[in-house]
Amino acid sequence: MPHVITQACCNDASCVFACPVNCIHPTPDEPGFATSEMLYIDPDACVDCGACVRACPVDAIVPHTKVAAEQLPFVEINRAFYPERPAGVKLPPTSKLAPILPAAEVPQRGRYPLTVAIVGSGPAAMYAADELLTQPGVLVNMFEKLPTPYGLVRAGVAPDHQRTKLATRLFDEISRRRGFQFFLNVEVGKHLRHADLLQYHHAVLYASGAMHDRRLEIDGMGLPGTGTATEVVGWYNGHPEFADLPVDLSHQRVVIVGNGNVALDVARILTSDPDRLADTDIADYALAALRDSGVQEVVIVARRGPAASAFTLPELVGLTQVAEVVLDTEDHARVRSDLAALPADGDHLTRQKLEILAKLGDASAPITRPRIRFAYGLTPERISGDGRCTAVEFTVTGSDQPRRIEAGLVLTSIGYHGTPIADLPFDDAAGIVPNDGGRVIDPATGQRVAGAYVSGWIKRGTNGFIGSNKSDSLKTIQTLAADYNAGLLAEPVGGPRSAARMVHAHQPDVIDAAGWKAINEAEIAAGAAQGRPRVKFTRVPDMLDVVTDHSDVPLLQNLLGALRRR
Ligand code: NAP
Questions:
Q1: Are 452 and 424 in contact (CB under 8 A)?
Q2: DSSP designation for 367
Q3: Phi and psi dihedrals of 151, rounded to 5?
């Protein structure tokens, strides 16, 4: 029986290269890979060897015989990606394996081996380090402003998606490799500038992501009771910058504007039974707030129709497995009309999404437990309220017919947006650093910015999934390696010990791998006592206290590490 890819698919394509018969598509070299919502196994071509299962970093692949009840829709989702054909007939390309791009070789040119500073420690940063460290001798110093690494995998992925967070196993393994060093609790732009880093590295690769959200400029945003879904994501995930966010759940209804995957995550968490979250790594204060919550309905509002829903099919399937999701009569009619308008050979993902929406319950039914309602075709005009928000005023999109939805909490969820990076050019409209294949380009001169590279959301914009960053970072590293091999990168003025001294001089509270290990182990130990994966520290001073308590360990390891690398 074939294997099946399920909801947690991260798109990093490790499975594609592990598969001996090329039955997983789209492959990174095929059109559509960059925008694909997940990868799919061709059930007719799969030889059931299980190589993909071992390669998947997030345990998303299961044999057909072990598919859990809630994963059953993925059997059809995998199959539907491939064209209909007579039973037993395989597709022609199954004998051709997906081409593996050769690793970028970087023979040492000067006194020091290629030494790269990576700014950020999320998926794009870790995949870039992974690629660099395939080459012997290469040194990677990773700078992260928080005392804890892994970016949105720690602070963005929802706590009830623990399988997706398994990507940290791979990241842990990368960070333990020879040549890798963490400099946590160091903010580039505050403690250090680009020029400081460039003195001690051949190149600086910025993979700092796009932590901030796009803002909806309508009257009333800013009233108490308004905010953004991404802030709430940071809040329930214990991100120190959002730990004090005032999230008032005392009202019956929450409105979320925008219907991407972030909106689905927040709606699902706000309507979850707190007992379902109690064995996750959700921040303690958030779990307590959810236990006291009065929220009975979260309305996710889109300005366009059902066929244009921004959420992905795997996330919609996952949502409907765990939450009660409804539509009102008008929106059920919109779904039927979109389904009828879909050409027979139309996009199979849209068809599958619409078919799921068509089966949702009716919003006129009495509310028996906290539920989610999708609403369509409403353009937000203003937030109303006297002193605090009480409702959102919409018009029916394309008309001036008013609609009003009462709500005590209004969150906008209209996408993330990159923030400018000190010393680098910035394209504010696109929210990215201008670049050519990852090499930062100053649009004013058309010239490269010395030693500066980008990867991930700050390079390409806020799209894709955790694993999409693997092929993206690989391309940047190939550009960087070509520049190094062409002699375009200046030699550092000192080796690893001088670099570490420079960082300590700018930020005495820098945390290294041993410090992170102490924080990580303390969190895991606290979690084990409660049957949870970890209990997160949510305040930086608490994290620093744990590191200080283990301060003899980092000092010794720093010295040993520096001596080893000399
Ligand atoms: P998104 O997918 O880009 O969705 C943005 C939503 O905001 C769309 O519904 C969009 O509607 C709406 N919108 C934009 N401007 C608006 C305006 N002025 N007024 C009203 N609505 C407006 O953004 P996201 O949910 O933040 O996700 C960002 C990325 O992270 C996506 O690639 C997503 O898949 C990924 N992500 C994935 C997961 C997961 O796999 N579990 C979880 C979280 C995030 P229009 O379509 O009409 O513009």
A1: yes
A2: P
A3: 50, -130
**Best probe residue, ligand 1, of 237, 414, 468 (max atoms within 8 Å of C-beta):** 414
Read off the amino acid at residue 177. Answer: R
The CA 310 to ligand 1 mean position distance, Å, reads 6
Decide if pLDDT at 553 tops 60.
no
Contact 253, 404 (CB under 8 A): no
Query: Is 455 a pocket residue for ligand 1 (Cβ < 6 Å)?
Result: no
The H or E element containing residue 340 is helix 329-341
Q: Is the CB of 451 under 6 A from ligand 1?
A: no
- Asked if residue 259 has its Cβ within 6 Å of ligand 1, the reply is yes
**Contact indicator for 192, 143 with CB cutoff of 8 Å:** yes
Q: How far apart are CA 7 and CA 77, in angstroms?
A: 10
pLDDT of residue 212: 82
Q: Average pLDDT for residues 436-456, to the nearest whole number?
A: 97
Give yes or no for residue 525 CB within 6 A of ligand 1: no
Q: Is the CB of 457 under 6 A from ligand 1?
A: no
Q: What is the dihedral of CA 280, 286, 292, 295, to 10 degrees?
A: -90
Per-residue confidence at 8, pLDDT binned at 50, 70, 90? very high
Q: Tokens in use for 359?
A: 């089966």
* Residue of 416 and 553 predicted with greater confidence: 416
Asked if the model's pLDDT at residue 100 lies above 80, the reply is: no
What value does the mean pLDDT of the chain take?
Answer: 93
Q: Which atom of ligand 1 is nearest to the CA of 463?
A: 32
User: Lowest-confidence range among 84-98, 104-118, 214-228?
Assistant: 84-98
416 lines ligand 1 (CB under 6 A): yes
Range 465-477 average pLDDT: 93
Residues in CB range of 311: below 8 A, 6 or more apart: 259, 260, 261, 263, 264, 319, 353
CA of 212 to the centre of ligand 1 (A): 13
Indicate whether 564 pLDDT > 70: no
**Length of the chain in residues, anyone?**
566
Residue 197 has pLDDT above 50, yes or no: yes
pLDDT(210) > 90: no
Identify the DSSP state of 490. Answer: P
- Atom in ligand 1 nearest the alpha carbon of residue 263: 25
Q: Does ligand 1 lie within 6 Å of residue 260's CB atom?
A: yes
CB of 348 closer than 6 angstroms to any ligand 1 atom: no
SS3 label, residue 348: helix
CA dihedral 308, 310, 312, 316 (to 10 degrees): -90
pLDDT at 365: 94
> In whole angstroms, how far apart are CA 489 and each of 102, 115, 124, 198?
22, 11, 22, 10
Percent of the chain with pLDDT over 70: 95
Mean pLDDT, residues 404-408 taken together: 98
| CA nearest neighbour of 458 among 438, 483, 482, 477 | 438
Output the 3-class SS for 110-146.
CCCCCEEEEECCCHHHHHHHHHHCCCCCCEEEEEECC
